[in-house]
Amino acid sequence: MFERLNPLSADPILGLMAAHRTDPNPRKIDLGVGVYKDEQGNTAVMRAVKAAEARLLQNQTTKTYVSPAGSAAFNERVADLVLGTTLRHTLGDRRTTFQTPGGCGGLRLAAEFIQKVKPGSKILVSDPTWANHIPLLGEAGLQIETYPYYDHNNHGIRFDAMMEQISTAGAGDLVLLHGCCHNPCGADLNQAQWQAVAELAQRKGFTPFIDLAYQGLGDGLADDSFGVRLLAETLPELIVVSSCSKNFGLYRERTGSLTVIADSSNAARAATSQISATARGIYSMPPDHGASVVAEILADTELNQDWELELTEVRERINNLRSALVVELNKQGLDRDFSFIEQEKGMFSFLGLSAGQVHTLINDYSIYLVDSSRINIAGINSSNIEYLAQSIAAVLKS
Ligand code: LMR
């Protein structure tokens, strides 16, 4: 049965993690996978997570099954986090939220659900988008098309071209948008642009599908969900997937959510039963631990405050690193303007290098980054920033 199988090459992002791990060079830098690292290069467990885990260990009395939708407490708290309490109440029964195995699980669950509702639906995704969007959505059967998004020359959003392309979508089509901290480019829609997208969706009838993987890592928890909240307030239908991997640092615990807003409570009730059956048919139920931790934190004033404080520290560190990298690159006497790195948001920006230059950085300098020259800003620290800037300059000058 397996004799004709060919091995596949490693995942472009996860493969870098493995290569970095085995590199003996003491100066090696990992700017590949989107994982937050502190000044010491560690991805520590957040304080509030540790405290919530201790409570769970003490208080949990059963490990019995929950349900395909996961924990109701988690789902309501996360809906508050994503939508805000007032909007959650306003939406009432038009909204349904599912706990999912990470953001990836949420994206796939949504795609499988859409595939049931309307097989082969068209979904427009930004060019570029996160590499794993394509298999997560496409392998469920959705038909993927792209819309122009990032201008590599001007380091800005190609907003007019984007709007022109997404205006070809109509009722029954979907448009995937990054809620904040665009992965891979870090360039986000501003409020006026979100407004224009909302008006276009209203006029054309397509359903926006928002991936909110980095809430809290851009401008703040509420600011980062501006687009989600605006679209949820104004449109009849919306799909939102959120992740707790980055903002709670729960990566391996696979904790995320899928929210569907329908135009009536009847439609939302039907969606709930369909999504439940879909989850049951794929993984039955999502893993519990991470969601219980998040529910515990969000329900407790003290833990919540400490979590928000630590998340603010994370966000500020990333933003400071962005400024510091620009300063360091400017010292190298290159004929290039890197100031866009400071304007962009979240963990990622493109350095603007060719794939060949990226390979030189990996092979000759042990600096690991994705072929597109996307870097994880959080992999930078005060001990490696100078070496990083000098290495980039050496590659650009050679
Ligand atoms: C990334 O883009 O690096 C992260 O979202 C991690 C992943 O799973 O690819």
Count all strands and give the number: 13
* Cα distance spanning the termini: 50 Å
Question: Which structural category fits the helices and strands?
Answer: alpha/beta
The total domain count is 2
Describe the structure.
The protein starts with 13 loop residues before the first helix and ends with a helix. The strands form four sheets. It has a seven-stranded mixed sheet with strand order 2-10-9-8-7-3-4, with helices on both faces. The chain has a two-stranded parallel ribbon with strand order 1-12. It is globular, with a radius of gyration of 21 Å. The model has no long low-confidence stretch (mean pLDDT 97). It is built from 16 helices and 13 strands. It has 398 residues and is α/β, with parallel strands linked by helices. Helices cover 46% and strands 14% of the residues. The protein folds into two domains: 115 residues, Aspartate Aminotransferase, domain 1 (Alpha-Beta Complex), CATH 3.90.1150.10; 235 residues, Type I PLP-dependent aspartate aminotransferase-like (Major domain) (Aspartate Aminotransferase, domain 2, 3-Layer(aba) Sandwich). Helix 8 runs parallel beside helix 10. (2S)-2-hydroxybutanedioic acid binds next to loops. The site of (2S)-2-hydroxybutanedioic acid (LMR) has 6 residues, from loops.
